[in-house]
Amino acid sequence: YNHIGSVWYKMGEFSQALCFSQKAIDIQKKTLPPNHSNLATSYANMGRVSYHIGEYSQALFYYQQAIDIQKKSLPPNHPDLATSYANMGSLCSNMGEYSQAVSFHQQAIHIREKSLPPDHPR
Hints:
With 122 residues, the protein is mostly helical. Helix 3 runs antiparallel to helix 4, helix 4 (56-73) packs antiparallel against helix 5 and helix 5 (79-94) packs antiparallel against helix 6 (98-115). The longest helix has 18 residues, at 14-31. Helices cover 78% and strands 0% of the residues.
């Protein structure tokens, strides 16, 4: 369902993308441990779509869910966690929460500096 949701997102069919991503979350919540990284990915997908359509409060909720799970299921310097922090930074910036945006982006940079080679394009 996540992959289908991603295709709908790429096609600009955001309500379909949300529907399929939510189906993935519903199934994962029943079948996976609550801190499974796949569930974090599904929440991040929901956040991405919500952010894109301007539903910032929903995006904030989903991105925070993803971060909470990733902090428990991934090593502290995992690049996926950096991506989630960067997503939150962009969202906070669009919401006018600039100091929070800077903080999230700094967390993302800190992780990327530790986890990626110095010449990595990210």
